[in-house]
Amino acid sequence: MDSIYGFTLEELSQKLALWGFSAYRAKQIFGWIYKKGIEDFSDMTNIGKKQQDVLKKTFSLSKFEPIRKEVSKDKTEKALFELADKKLIETALIPEKSRNTLCLSTQVGCGYNCTFCASKQGGFVRNLETFEIVRQYLEFSKKYRITNLVYMGIGEPLDNFDNTVKSIKILTEPAGANFTKRRISLSTCGLPDKIKKLAGLNLGIKLSVSLHAVTNSKRSRLMPVNNKYPLEELFESVKYYQHKQKYPVTFEYILLEDFNVGEDDVKKLAKLIRQTGAKLNLIPYNGKEKASLAGGGESLSFIEEKHSFFIKNLRKEKIIFTLRKSRGPDINAACGQLRSY
Q1: Catalytic: which of 103, 117, 189, 335?
Q2: pLDDT tens-digit series, residues 14-28
Q3: Strand 148-151 vs strand 126-127: parallel, antiparallel, or unpaired?
Q4: Which of 64, 66, 148, 262 sits CB 3.0–4.6 Å from 135 for a disulfide?
């Protein structure tokens, strides 16, 4: 039996039409699921008993409850989910005064073996199904009003292209969750062919690219994917995406002492930002946590002082950037720490 959370509104309408349901009725059902969070067809009070019985025989409302939750000192929340096949994934919620950002996973494990990321532990296992991505959102939306979605959890979203895209279409459907497209960001290690394919869909979402080094030799040491897709090819796809979407891509850049924060790195990075028109997001790295991008919870002022040469020179180059403060490092929920078990 198929999970109803794996159907777009169009697909649901087509499926239900076989049973004599009108398109309007399909919209009502979609609204019950994504606007009101109903998890039992019997609770859909404006759907007749006979139609409820059809729904029960046709679809499952698959349960997706966490087997463990942890809360950080900074209120970041992490959930460990057990899937039907007993595989495990993690999802993180980052609460702030004006927004609540949910970090979604798209795969069990990851096959790209970036040196700084814990998701690689155990290697790639399988792609998440659409409903498994969507249910992460629905579980957290019971407690929080989610304002931002980031596809930055376990796995490479563009490697699970169809399920990732379908989950975005489901969550942005006006008849359902009606999530704002510009409040969704997808992060990739850099797959040029998939970036171009994504651009062609005109989903209207933001794209973040894990850059982390501005020469092929350095980036390949951090990210083996660069051996297959070197920087020149990646930049060409980034420019294409920006041209199609009319919105700048964000480059993520991890700060690694004695590796990618020297004078030459600053100049090459500044030149790249000017040439591409991309945004820049700097991420602190805690060397004590070898499998993490976490900054260990240090203040932004401490991080600025630690990397003062690099940051001051970026400013001299008149490059505008954001400096990310790690959230949830004490529960291994910071960027790069989510993993399968």
Answers
A1: 335
A2: 999 999 999 999 999
A3: unpaired
A4: 64
- Of the CA atoms within 13 Å of residue 266, those in its CB half-sphere come to 18
Average pLDDT for residues 52-75, to the nearest whole number? 92
**How is the chain split among helix, strand and coil, in percent rounded to 5?**
40, 20, 40
Cβ-based neighbour number of residue 318 at 10 Å: 9
* Residue 208, CA distances (Å) to 86, 145, 152, 250 in order: 31, 23, 9, 5
Query: pLDDT-based confidence at 288, cuts 50/70/90?
Result: very low
Q: What are phi and psi of 282, to 5 degrees?
A: -90, 135
Of 39, 65, 90, 96, the catalytic one is 90
pLDDT of residue 290: 41
245 closest CA partner among 288, 208, 285, 218? 208
For the question of residue 335 being annotated catalytic, the response is yes
Q: Taking residues 144-157, report their average pLDDT.
A: 96
Main-chain dihedrals φ then ψ at residue 140, nearest 5 degrees? -75, -25
**Euclidean distance between CA atoms 258 and 264, whole angstroms:** 12
Is 90 a known active-site residue?
Answer: yes
Q: How far apart are CA 226 and CA 235, in angstroms?
A: 12
